[in-house]
Each structure stands twice: as C-alpha cells, then as structure tokens.
Design a protein that fits this description.
mainly alpha; 3 helices; 0% strand
C-alpha cells in the first residue's frame, strides 16, 4: 500500500469515526439519516419522472 493509499484509507476511517460520533451526539440513527438523504434525492430528481410513471406511486405526494 502506497503512502497516498494509506492516507486515503485513514481519511475514510476518520470520516466513519466522526460520523458515528456526530450521530451519537445528535441522537440520530444512521438509518434515519439515510432515509432523509433518499427523500432529498427523490425531491431533487422528481422532474425526471414522467406523469405516467408518477401514476405508479399513488401513496406519495408530489
């Protein structure tokens, strides 16, 4: 493993550790964060869905 690869691996490890710490401090569950990000992604990309495709999602509010 090169020095650069080690730096990248360490940065990823620290990112995971920091996320875990912040989730603990805020009382947010990782799954809640994932769900929020998914809803935001859907909202931001909803224009890509045709009216006919939207008809399949009757339980969602657009």
């Amino acid at each position: 493993m090169t020095a650069k690869e080690k730096d990248i691996a360490e940065a990823k490890r620290q990112e995971k550790e920091l996320l875990a710490l912040l989730l603990e401090k805020t009382g947010v569950k990782k799954q809640d964060l994932i769900d929020m990000i998914c809803r935001e992604f859907i909202k931001d990309n909803l224009a890509l869905v045709t009216p006919a495709e939207r008809e399949r999602f009757t339980k969602l509010v657009f």
